[in-house]
Design the sequence.
Protein backbone atom coordinates (compact mmCIF):
# COMPACT_ATOMS: atom_id res chain seq x y z
CA UNK A 1 0.00 0.00 0.00
CA UNK A 2 1.33 3.43 -0.93
CA UNK A 3 1.76 5.33 2.35
CA UNK A 4 -0.01 8.69 2.69
CA UNK A 5 0.45 10.70 5.86
CA UNK A 6 -0.14 14.25 7.05
CA UNK A 7 3.19 15.91 7.70
CA UNK A 8 6.44 14.03 7.95
CA UNK A 9 6.47 10.45 9.13
CA UNK A 10 3.64 9.03 11.16
CA UNK A 11 1.11 6.41 10.23
CA UNK A 12 -0.89 6.25 7.04
CA UNK A 13 -4.20 8.09 7.37
CA UNK A 14 -6.06 4.80 6.87
CA UNK A 15 -4.16 3.26 9.78
CA UNK A 16 -5.33 6.15 11.98
CA UNK A 17 -8.85 4.68 11.93
CA UNK A 18 -9.77 1.94 14.44
CA UNK A 19 -11.50 0.25 11.48
CA UNK A 20 -8.27 -0.24 9.53
CA UNK A 21 -8.62 -4.03 9.75
CA UNK A 22 -11.95 -3.74 7.95
CA UNK A 23 -10.31 -1.67 5.21
CA UNK A 24 -7.68 -4.35 4.66
CA UNK A 25 -10.34 -7.02 4.25
CA UNK A 26 -12.47 -4.85 1.97
CA UNK A 27 -9.96 -3.18 -0.33
CA UNK A 28 -6.46 -4.50 0.13
CA UNK A 29 -7.72 -8.02 -0.57
CA UNK A 30 -10.56 -7.31 -3.02
CA UNK A 31 -9.90 -3.91 -4.59
CA UNK A 32 -12.47 -1.24 -5.38
CA UNK A 33 -13.66 -2.71 -8.67
CA UNK A 34 -16.06 -4.99 -6.76
CA UNK A 35 -18.01 -2.00 -5.40
CA UNK A 36 -20.45 -1.41 -8.24
CA UNK A 37 -23.42 0.95 -8.31
CA UNK A 38 -26.77 -0.58 -9.26
CA UNK A 39 -28.18 0.18 -12.69
CA UNK A 40 -31.85 1.19 -12.99
CA UNK A 41 -33.75 -1.53 -14.84
CA UNK A 42 -37.33 -0.46 -14.12
CA UNK A 43 -38.77 0.67 -17.46
CA UNK A 44 -41.46 2.76 -15.77
CA UNK A 45 -38.85 4.81 -13.93
CA UNK A 46 -36.71 5.21 -17.04
CA UNK A 47 -39.74 6.38 -18.98
CA UNK A 48 -40.91 8.71 -16.18
CA UNK A 49 -37.66 10.68 -16.26
CA UNK A 50 -37.33 10.66 -20.03
CA UNK A 51 -34.33 8.35 -20.37
CA UNK A 52 -36.11 6.19 -22.92
CA UNK A 53 -36.55 9.27 -25.10
CA UNK A 54 -32.85 10.15 -24.83
CA UNK A 55 -31.60 6.71 -25.85
CA UNK A 56 -29.61 6.46 -29.05
CA UNK A 57 -29.13 2.70 -28.78
CA UNK A 58 -31.47 0.08 -27.37
CA UNK A 59 -30.85 -1.47 -23.98
CA UNK A 60 -31.19 -4.84 -25.66
CA UNK A 61 -28.36 -4.20 -28.14
CA UNK A 62 -25.53 -6.72 -28.27
CA UNK A 63 -22.34 -6.11 -26.25
CA UNK A 64 -20.43 -5.43 -29.48
CA UNK A 65 -23.02 -2.87 -30.61
CA UNK A 66 -22.88 -1.13 -27.24
CA UNK A 67 -19.10 -0.99 -27.30
CA UNK A 68 -19.11 0.41 -30.81
CA UNK A 69 -21.66 3.06 -29.83
CA UNK A 70 -19.66 4.06 -26.77
CA UNK A 71 -16.44 4.35 -28.78
CA UNK A 72 -18.15 6.36 -31.52
CA UNK A 73 -19.56 8.80 -28.96
CA UNK A 74 -16.10 9.26 -27.41
CA UNK A 75 -14.84 10.16 -30.88
CA UNK A 76 -17.78 12.56 -31.45
CA UNK A 77 -17.24 14.30 -28.12
CA UNK A 78 -13.57 14.77 -28.89
CA UNK A 79 -14.49 16.46 -32.19
CA UNK A 80 -17.27 18.64 -30.72
CA UNK A 81 -15.98 19.49 -27.23
CA UNK A 82 -12.63 21.29 -26.99
CA UNK A 83 -12.40 20.78 -23.23
CA UNK A 84 -12.96 17.02 -23.53
CA UNK A 85 -10.37 16.81 -26.32
CA UNK A 86 -7.89 18.74 -24.19
CA UNK A 87 -8.50 16.43 -21.22
CA UNK A 88 -7.86 13.42 -23.46
CA UNK A 89 -4.72 14.86 -25.10
CA UNK A 90 -2.95 16.76 -22.35
CA UNK A 91 -2.26 14.18 -19.63
CA UNK A 92 1.46 13.54 -19.18
CA UNK A 93 0.95 10.96 -16.41
CA UNK A 94 2.86 13.02 -13.86
CA UNK A 95 0.76 11.51 -11.07
CA UNK A 96 0.16 14.74 -9.14
CA UNK A 97 -3.59 14.09 -9.13
CA UNK A 98 -3.50 10.56 -7.75
CA UNK A 99 -3.32 11.14 -4.01
CA UNK A 100 -5.58 14.19 -4.28
CA UNK A 101 -8.57 12.01 -5.18
CA UNK A 102 -10.86 10.98 -2.28
CA UNK A 103 -11.61 7.63 -3.91
CA UNK A 104 -7.92 6.81 -4.30
CA UNK A 105 -7.25 7.94 -0.73
CA UNK A 106 -9.95 5.55 0.43
CA UNK A 107 -9.09 2.54 -1.76
CA UNK A 108 -5.44 2.92 -2.91
CA UNK A 109 -6.56 1.50 -6.24
CA UNK A 110 -4.56 3.23 -9.04
CA UNK A 111 -7.48 2.83 -11.46
CA UNK A 112 -9.65 4.62 -8.91
CA UNK A 113 -7.75 7.87 -9.41
CA UNK A 114 -8.21 10.70 -11.91
CA UNK A 115 -5.49 9.49 -14.26
CA UNK A 116 -6.41 5.82 -13.90
CA UNK A 117 -10.09 6.46 -14.45
CA UNK A 118 -9.47 8.74 -17.44
CA UNK A 119 -7.13 6.21 -19.05
CA UNK A 120 -10.01 3.75 -19.34
CA UNK A 121 -11.51 6.18 -21.86
CA UNK A 122 -8.28 7.79 -23.03
CA UNK A 123 -7.11 4.46 -24.48
CA UNK A 124 -10.23 4.35 -26.63
CA UNK A 125 -9.78 7.95 -27.73
CA UNK A 126 -6.12 7.54 -28.63
CA UNK A 127 -6.70 4.32 -30.55
CA UNK A 128 -9.42 5.99 -32.61
CA UNK A 129 -7.46 9.19 -33.03
CA UNK A 130 -4.42 7.31 -34.28
CA UNK A 131 -6.56 5.55 -36.85
CA UNK A 132 -8.37 8.77 -37.82
CA UNK A 133 -11.63 7.07 -36.82
CA UNK A 134 -11.03 4.50 -39.54
CA UNK A 135 -11.92 1.66 -37.22
CA UNK A 136 -15.49 2.95 -37.05
CA UNK A 137 -15.87 3.96 -40.69
CA UNK A 138 -17.65 2.13 -43.49
CA UNK A 139 -14.45 0.62 -44.80
CA UNK A 140 -13.20 -0.52 -41.41
CA UNK A 141 -11.49 -3.89 -41.28
CA UNK A 142 -13.80 -6.21 -39.35
CA UNK A 143 -10.97 -8.07 -37.65
CA UNK A 144 -9.22 -4.89 -36.52
CA UNK A 145 -12.51 -3.50 -35.27
CA UNK A 146 -13.31 -6.70 -33.39
CA UNK A 147 -9.89 -6.70 -31.72
CA UNK A 148 -10.30 -3.05 -30.74
CA UNK A 149 -13.80 -3.51 -29.33
CA UNK A 150 -12.60 -6.49 -27.32
CA UNK A 151 -10.46 -4.04 -25.35
CA UNK A 152 -13.42 -1.79 -24.48
CA UNK A 153 -14.54 -2.86 -20.99
CA UNK A 154 -17.87 -1.09 -20.47
CA UNK A 155 -18.51 -2.78 -17.14
CA UNK A 156 -15.21 -1.53 -15.77
CA UNK A 157 -15.82 1.97 -17.16
CA UNK A 158 -19.31 2.03 -15.59
CA UNK A 159 -17.94 0.83 -12.25
CA UNK A 160 -15.11 3.35 -11.97
CA UNK A 161 -17.00 6.29 -13.44
CA UNK A 162 -19.55 5.82 -10.68
CA UNK A 163 -16.76 5.89 -8.13
CA UNK A 164 -15.92 9.48 -9.10
CA UNK A 165 -17.56 12.13 -6.91
CA UNK A 166 -17.03 14.87 -9.52
CA UNK A 167 -15.39 16.87 -6.72
CA UNK A 168 -12.81 18.28 -9.18
CA UNK A 169 -10.03 18.41 -6.58
CA UNK A 170 -7.74 16.89 -9.20
CA UNK A 171 -8.15 19.96 -11.41
CA UNK A 172 -6.70 22.23 -8.71
CA UNK A 173 -3.42 20.30 -8.69
CA UNK A 174 -3.14 19.26 -12.37
CA UNK A 175 -0.42 21.31 -14.13
CA UNK A 176 -2.24 20.71 -17.43
CA UNK A 177 -5.64 21.85 -16.17
CA UNK A 178 -7.32 18.47 -16.68
CA UNK A 179 -10.70 18.24 -14.94
CA UNK A 180 -11.68 14.62 -14.29
CA UNK A 181 -15.08 15.75 -12.99
CA UNK A 182 -15.95 17.05 -16.45
CA UNK A 183 -14.67 13.87 -18.11
CA UNK A 184 -16.95 11.94 -15.76
CA UNK A 185 -19.94 14.04 -16.72
CA UNK A 186 -19.22 13.44 -20.41
CA UNK A 187 -18.91 9.66 -19.95
CA UNK A 188 -22.10 9.49 -17.88
CA UNK A 189 -23.89 11.42 -20.62
CA UNK A 190 -22.98 8.59 -23.01
CA UNK A 191 -24.29 5.99 -20.57
CA UNK A 192 -27.62 7.85 -20.33
CA UNK A 193 -27.79 7.76 -24.14
CA UNK A 194 -27.40 3.99 -23.80
CA UNK A 195 -30.31 3.88 -21.35
CA UNK A 196 -27.95 3.32 -18.41
CA UNK A 197 -28.40 5.33 -15.21
CA UNK A 198 -27.92 4.30 -11.56
CA UNK A 199 -31.03 3.24 -9.70
CA UNK A 200 -30.41 5.73 -6.87
CA UNK A 201 -29.97 8.69 -9.21
CA UNK A 202 -32.89 7.70 -11.43
CA UNK A 203 -35.33 7.41 -8.54
CA UNK A 204 -34.08 10.61 -6.95
CA UNK A 205 -34.63 12.48 -10.23
CA UNK A 206 -38.05 10.83 -10.58
CA UNK A 207 -38.99 12.37 -7.24
CA UNK A 208 -38.35 15.84 -8.69
CA UNK A 209 -40.37 15.04 -11.81
CA UNK A 210 -43.35 13.79 -9.82
CA UNK A 211 -43.33 15.95 -6.68
CA UNK A 212 -40.71 18.66 -7.15
CA UNK A 213 -38.27 17.21 -4.63
CA UNK A 214 -35.98 14.23 -4.04
CA UNK A 215 -37.91 12.86 -1.05
CA UNK A 216 -41.33 12.64 -2.75
CA UNK A 217 -42.82 15.14 -0.26
CA UNK A 218 -46.29 16.35 -1.25
CA UNK A 219 -47.82 19.67 -0.22
CA UNK A 220 -49.88 18.27 2.64
CA UNK A 221 -46.86 16.54 4.17
CA UNK A 222 -44.71 19.65 3.76
CA UNK A 223 -47.33 21.77 5.50
CA UNK A 224 -47.62 19.27 8.36
CA UNK A 225 -43.85 19.25 8.90
CA UNK A 226 -43.68 23.03 8.66
CA UNK A 227 -46.46 23.42 11.25
CA UNK A 228 -44.62 21.06 13.57
CA UNK A 229 -41.33 22.94 13.10
CA UNK A 230 -42.94 26.33 13.72
CA UNK A 231 -44.60 25.02 16.90
CA UNK A 232 -41.28 23.58 18.05
CA UNK A 233 -39.53 26.89 17.40
CA UNK A 234 -42.25 28.68 19.37
CA UNK A 235 -41.63 26.43 22.36
CA UNK A 236 -37.84 26.82 22.08
CA UNK A 237 -37.79 30.62 21.73
CA UNK A 238 -41.10 31.88 23.17
CA UNK A 239 -41.94 33.75 19.98
CA UNK A 240 -43.98 33.20 16.85
CA UNK A 241 -42.49 32.67 13.40
CA UNK A 242 -44.16 33.16 10.05
CA UNK A 243 -43.91 30.74 7.14
CA UNK A 244 -46.17 29.96 4.20
CA UNK A 245 -46.42 27.30 1.54
CA UNK A 246 -47.57 28.37 -1.94
CA UNK A 247 -48.39 32.00 -1.14
CA UNK A 248 -49.87 33.57 -4.26
CA UNK A 249 -47.39 36.43 -4.07
CA UNK A 250 -44.37 37.03 -1.86
CA UNK A 251 -41.17 39.04 -1.86
CA UNK A 252 -38.90 36.02 -1.46
CA UNK A 253 -38.93 32.30 -2.22
CA UNK A 254 -36.91 29.92 -0.04
CA UNK A 255 -35.60 26.78 -1.75
CA UNK A 256 -34.72 24.29 1.02
CA UNK A 257 -33.34 20.80 0.81
CA UNK A 258 -36.08 18.20 1.05
CA UNK A 259 -33.96 16.41 3.66
CA UNK A 260 -34.41 19.46 5.90
CA UNK A 261 -37.97 18.25 6.41
CA UNK A 262 -36.76 14.95 7.87
CA UNK A 263 -33.18 14.72 9.11
CA UNK A 264 -31.84 18.30 9.03
CA UNK A 265 -34.54 20.05 11.03
CA UNK A 266 -31.98 22.31 12.73
CA UNK A 267 -30.95 23.68 9.34
CA UNK A 268 -34.58 24.37 8.38
CA UNK A 269 -35.12 26.19 11.69
CA UNK A 270 -32.06 28.33 11.06
CA UNK A 271 -33.22 29.24 7.56
CA UNK A 272 -36.69 30.15 8.85
CA UNK A 273 -35.17 32.23 11.67
CA UNK A 274 -33.06 34.24 9.18
CA UNK A 275 -35.95 34.87 6.78
CA UNK A 276 -38.24 35.85 9.66
CA UNK A 277 -35.57 37.88 11.44
CA UNK A 278 -35.11 40.01 8.33
CA UNK A 279 -38.85 40.65 8.19
CA UNK A 280 -39.15 39.17 4.72
CA UNK A 281 -42.51 38.33 3.22
CA UNK A 282 -41.48 34.88 2.06
CA UNK A 283 -42.88 31.56 0.96
CA UNK A 284 -42.04 27.99 0.09
CA UNK A 285 -43.26 26.43 -3.14
CA UNK A 286 -44.63 22.90 -2.74
CA UNK A 287 -43.36 22.00 -6.23
CA UNK A 288 -39.82 23.20 -5.50
CA UNK A 289 -38.88 21.90 -2.06
CA UNK A 290 -35.45 20.90 -3.30
CA UNK A 291 -32.04 22.51 -3.72
CA UNK A 292 -30.31 19.37 -5.06
CA UNK A 293 -29.92 18.93 -8.80
CA UNK A 294 -28.92 15.36 -9.63
CA UNK A 295 -28.93 16.30 -13.30
CA UNK A 296 -25.45 17.68 -12.63
CA UNK A 297 -24.35 14.10 -12.00
CA UNK A 298 -25.93 12.65 -15.15
CA UNK A 299 -26.73 14.73 -18.22
CA UNK A 300 -27.65 18.16 -19.53
CA UNK A 301 -31.34 17.39 -20.09
CA UNK A 302 -32.05 16.56 -16.45
CA UNK A 303 -29.83 19.42 -15.30
CA UNK A 304 -31.93 21.87 -17.32
CA UNK A 305 -35.27 20.34 -16.29
CA UNK A 306 -34.53 20.68 -12.58
CA UNK A 307 -33.15 24.18 -13.13
CA UNK A 308 -36.35 25.13 -14.95
CA UNK A 309 -38.30 23.99 -11.90
CA UNK A 310 -36.68 26.72 -9.80
CA UNK A 311 -37.36 29.40 -12.40
CA UNK A 312 -41.00 28.33 -12.74
CA UNK A 313 -41.45 28.37 -8.96
CA UNK A 314 -40.10 31.94 -8.77
CA UNK A 315 -42.46 33.03 -11.53
CA UNK A 316 -45.44 31.24 -9.91
CA UNK A 317 -44.86 33.04 -6.61
CA UNK A 318 -44.05 36.37 -8.32
CA UNK A 319 -41.08 36.96 -6.04
CA UNK A 320 -38.26 39.49 -6.20
CA UNK A 321 -35.69 37.21 -4.57
CA UNK A 322 -34.88 33.50 -4.52
CA UNK A 323 -32.94 32.28 -1.48
CA UNK A 324 -31.10 29.01 -2.04
CA UNK A 325 -30.71 26.68 0.96
CA UNK A 326 -27.74 24.63 2.16
CA UNK A 327 -26.45 22.42 -0.65
CA UNK A 328 -23.07 22.17 -2.38
CA UNK A 329 -23.58 20.69 -5.85
CA UNK A 330 -27.06 22.25 -6.01
CA UNK A 331 -25.58 25.71 -5.54
CA UNK A 332 -23.07 25.09 -8.32
CA UNK A 333 -25.88 24.20 -10.74
CA UNK A 334 -28.11 27.03 -9.49
CA UNK A 335 -25.42 29.72 -9.55
CA UNK A 336 -24.13 28.86 -13.00
CA UNK A 337 -27.30 27.74 -14.81
CA UNK A 338 -30.28 29.30 -13.01
CA UNK A 339 -29.22 32.53 -11.29
CA UNK A 340 -28.28 34.32 -14.56
CA UNK A 341 -31.76 33.58 -15.95
CA UNK A 342 -33.49 34.82 -12.80
CA UNK A 343 -31.38 37.96 -12.66
CA UNK A 344 -32.18 38.68 -16.31
CA UNK A 345 -35.83 38.74 -15.21
CA UNK A 346 -35.04 41.16 -12.37
CA UNK A 347 -35.16 38.45 -9.67
CA UNK A 348 -32.26 38.42 -7.21
CA UNK A 349 -30.63 35.03 -6.58
CA UNK A 350 -28.69 34.49 -3.36
CA UNK A 351 -27.67 31.65 -1.06
CA UNK A 352 -28.87 31.49 2.55
CA UNK A 353 -25.22 31.71 3.64
CA UNK A 354 -24.64 34.89 1.63
CA UNK A 355 -27.88 36.40 2.94
CA UNK A 356 -26.98 35.54 6.53
CA UNK A 357 -23.47 36.96 6.20
CA UNK A 358 -24.85 40.19 4.72
CA UNK A 359 -27.45 40.50 7.48
CA UNK A 360 -24.88 39.96 10.23
CA UNK A 361 -22.48 42.51 8.72
CA UNK A 362 -25.28 45.08 8.48
CA UNK A 363 -26.53 44.39 12.00
CA UNK A 364 -29.87 43.21 10.63
CA UNK A 365 -29.75 39.97 12.62
CA UNK A 366 -29.30 39.89 16.39
CA UNK A 367 -27.07 37.27 18.02
CA UNK A 368 -28.28 36.62 21.55
CA UNK A 369 -25.23 34.63 22.58
CA UNK A 370 -22.44 32.92 20.66
CA UNK A 371 -22.59 29.14 20.87
CA UNK A 372 -19.95 27.93 23.31
CA UNK A 373 -18.32 25.57 20.86
CA UNK A 374 -15.12 25.07 18.87
CA UNK A 375 -15.90 24.22 15.26
CA UNK A 376 -14.01 23.50 12.07
CA UNK A 377 -15.41 24.19 8.63
CA UNK A 378 -15.45 21.64 5.82
CA UNK A 379 -15.63 23.47 2.49
CA UNK A 380 -18.10 21.56 0.28
CA UNK A 381 -16.35 20.85 -3.02
CA UNK A 382 -18.83 22.63 -5.23
CA UNK A 383 -19.06 25.71 -3.00
CA UNK A 384 -15.29 26.17 -2.84
CA UNK A 385 -14.27 25.06 -6.34
CA UNK A 386 -17.30 26.07 -8.41
CA UNK A 387 -19.60 28.23 -6.33
CA UNK A 388 -17.51 31.16 -5.05
CA UNK A 389 -18.72 30.56 -1.49
CA UNK A 390 -15.64 30.46 0.70
CA UNK A 391 -15.50 33.47 3.03
CA UNK A 392 -19.22 33.96 3.77
CA UNK A 393 -19.72 30.75 5.77
CA UNK A 394 -16.56 31.48 7.73
CA UNK A 395 -17.79 34.98 8.58
CA UNK A 396 -21.13 33.54 9.69
CA UNK A 397 -19.50 30.92 11.91
CA UNK A 398 -17.10 33.42 13.51
CA UNK A 399 -20.14 35.56 14.29
CA UNK A 400 -22.10 32.80 16.01
CA UNK A 401 -19.61 30.39 17.67
CA UNK A 402 -16.82 30.79 20.23
CA UNK A 403 -14.02 29.62 17.92
CA UNK A 404 -13.52 28.54 14.32
CA UNK A 405 -10.41 26.49 13.57
CA UNK A 406 -9.13 26.02 10.05
CA UNK A 407 -8.19 22.60 8.69
CA UNK A 408 -5.03 21.88 6.70
CA UNK A 409 -7.00 21.02 3.57
CA UNK A 410 -9.46 23.87 3.12
CA UNK A 411 -10.92 26.38 0.69
CA UNK A 412 -10.14 25.47 -2.96
CA UNK A 413 -8.02 22.51 -1.80
CA UNK A 414 -10.73 21.04 0.40
CA UNK A 415 -11.09 17.28 0.75
CA UNK A 416 -14.27 15.67 -0.59
CA UNK A 417 -16.98 14.07 1.55
CA UNK A 418 -16.67 10.93 -0.60
CA UNK A 419 -20.36 10.63 -1.51
CA UNK A 420 -21.03 13.40 -4.03
CA UNK A 421 -21.61 12.85 -7.72
CA UNK A 422 -24.53 10.48 -7.04
CA UNK A 423 -22.53 8.07 -4.85
CA UNK A 424 -24.79 8.54 -1.80
CA UNK A 425 -26.26 5.05 -2.04
CA UNK A 426 -26.11 1.98 0.18
CA UNK A 427 -24.33 -0.38 -2.23
CA UNK A 428 -21.36 2.00 -2.27
CA UNK A 429 -21.21 2.24 1.53
CA UNK A 430 -17.90 0.27 1.76
CA UNK A 431 -16.37 2.90 -0.53
CA UNK A 432 -18.12 5.90 1.06
CA UNK A 433 -16.95 5.32 4.63
CA UNK A 434 -13.30 5.29 3.52
CA UNK A 435 -13.47 8.01 0.84
CA UNK A 436 -14.95 10.34 3.48
CA UNK A 437 -12.46 9.41 6.20
CA UNK A 438 -9.58 11.77 5.16
CA UNK A 439 -11.84 14.82 5.55
CA UNK A 440 -13.11 13.64 8.94
CA UNK A 441 -9.51 12.94 10.01
CA UNK A 442 -8.45 16.40 8.83
CA UNK A 443 -11.21 17.85 11.04
CA UNK A 444 -10.23 15.72 14.03
CA UNK A 445 -6.69 17.07 13.86
CA UNK A 446 -7.98 20.59 14.64
CA UNK A 447 -9.30 19.44 18.02
CA UNK A 448 -12.73 20.92 17.20
CA UNK A 449 -15.92 19.64 18.79
CA UNK A 450 -17.95 20.07 15.61
CA UNK A 451 -17.38 19.62 11.90
CA UNK A 452 -19.65 22.04 10.01
CA UNK A 453 -20.75 22.33 6.37
CA UNK A 454 -23.71 23.86 4.49
CA UNK A 455 -24.32 20.86 2.22
CA UNK A 456 -27.10 18.26 2.22
CA UNK A 457 -24.92 15.42 0.93
CA UNK A 458 -22.31 16.23 3.60
CA UNK A 459 -25.07 16.03 6.21
CA UNK A 460 -26.06 12.59 4.99
CA UNK A 461 -22.49 11.34 4.55
CA UNK A 462 -20.34 12.63 7.37
CA UNK A 463 -22.42 11.41 10.34
CA UNK A 464 -22.20 7.90 8.82
CA UNK A 465 -18.42 8.19 8.36
CA UNK A 466 -18.00 9.60 11.88
CA UNK A 467 -20.04 6.80 13.42
CA UNK A 468 -18.29 4.08 11.40
CA UNK A 469 -14.82 5.24 12.45
CA UNK A 470 -15.92 6.03 16.02
CA UNK A 471 -14.52 9.54 15.62
CA UNK A 472 -14.96 11.90 18.61
CA UNK A 473 -16.53 14.78 16.67
CA UNK A 474 -20.07 15.93 15.84
CA UNK A 475 -21.47 17.25 12.58
CA UNK A 476 -23.91 20.14 11.96
CA UNK A 477 -25.00 22.57 9.28
CA UNK A 478 -24.14 26.29 9.37
CA UNK A 479 -27.74 27.45 9.84
CA UNK A 480 -28.10 25.20 12.90
CA UNK A 481 -25.55 27.37 14.72
CA UNK A 482 -27.15 30.58 13.44
CA UNK A 483 -30.49 29.60 14.99
CA UNK A 484 -28.85 28.54 18.26
CA UNK A 485 -26.93 31.83 18.53
CA UNK A 486 -29.90 34.03 17.62
CA UNK A 487 -31.93 32.62 20.51
CA UNK A 488 -29.32 31.41 23.00
CA UNK A 489 -30.14 27.73 22.47
CA UNK A 490 -28.20 24.51 23.02
CA UNK A 491 -27.28 23.50 19.47
CA UNK A 492 -27.33 19.81 20.39
CA UNK A 493 -30.95 20.04 21.54
CA UNK A 494 -32.19 21.54 18.29
CA UNK A 495 -33.77 18.59 16.52
Sequence:
Amino acid sequence: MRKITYGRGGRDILEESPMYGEWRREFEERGSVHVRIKEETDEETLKAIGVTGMQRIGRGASPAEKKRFFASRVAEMARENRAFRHHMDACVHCGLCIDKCPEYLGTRDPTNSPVGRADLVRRIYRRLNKASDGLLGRDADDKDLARFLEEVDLDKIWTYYYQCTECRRCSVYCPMGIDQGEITRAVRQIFVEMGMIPEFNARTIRGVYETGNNMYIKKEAAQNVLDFVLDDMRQETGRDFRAAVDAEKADALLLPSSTDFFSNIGTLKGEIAVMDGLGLDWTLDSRALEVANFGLFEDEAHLRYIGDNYVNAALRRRVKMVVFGECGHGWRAFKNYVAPRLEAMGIQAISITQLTAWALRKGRLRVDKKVDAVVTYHDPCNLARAGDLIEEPRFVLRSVVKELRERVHNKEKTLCCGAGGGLLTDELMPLRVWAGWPSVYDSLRTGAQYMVAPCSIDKAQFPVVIQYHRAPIKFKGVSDFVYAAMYGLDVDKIA
Notes: The two ends are 42 Å apart (CA to CA). The mean pLDDT is 95.
